[in-house]
Amino acid sequence: MTTLKDIMTEEVDACSPADNIYDVAVKMKNDHVGAIPICVDGKLMGMITDRDIVIRGIAEKLPNTSQAQEVMSDDIFTAQSSMDVTEAAKLMAEHQIRRLPIVDGDKLIGIVSLGDLAVHQSTEHEAAIALSEISELPQYHH
């Protein structure tokens, strides 16, 4: 059985809720990622995606100095590192999750993306199912 611990990215950059969205966007650019966890002392408070910055920030004409907490999502799904990848893929598909924070209690210890599922031979099928289910829902097409 392959668990999320086997495939998760452990070195995850995070920002604080008080960081401004410009700095968050720069961190995304430098790290080549589309989402950054928002943490306080390692405790996961939320996630901010490039889409959050565009839709909740730029489109609402918020200044670049606005705090991350103004545009982040704070109602997020998480998983523990012991979760089976098949179970995680189902969770991600069911709830339209592209990036799943991995926590130990409330502390962020890693993250799993659809890409992480796809690059591991044993999880390729699960990733394909999750991606197709995320992509098929018409309310998410823009």
Tags for this entry?
18% strand, 37% helix, Diverse_CBS-Domain, CBS_dom_sf, 4 strands, two-stranded antiparallel ribbon, 6 helices, alpha+beta, CBS-domain, disordered C terminus, 142 residues, CBS domain-containing protein, CBS_dom, CBS domain
Describe, in plain words, how this protein is organized in 3D.
This protein has 142 residues and is an alpha+beta fold. It has one domain: CBS-domain (Roll). 37% of the residues lie in helices and 18% in strands. The protein has six helices and four strands; from the N terminus they run H-H-E-E-H-H-E-E-H-H. A two-stranded antiparallel ribbon has the order 1-2. The chain is elongated, with a radius of gyration of 15 Å. The C terminus is likely disordered.
What is the topological layout?
Layout: H1 4-7, H2 21-31, E1 35-40, E2 43-49, H3 50-58, H4 85-94, E3 99-104, E4 107-113, H5 114-119, H6 124-136
Antiparallel strand pairs: 1-2, 3-4
Overall shape: it is elongated
Residue fraction in strands? 15-25%
Biggest β-sheet strands, sense, barrel: 2 strands, antiparallel
The percent of residues in helical segments reads 25-40%
Write a brief caption for the model.
This protein is α+β, with helices and mostly antiparallel strands.
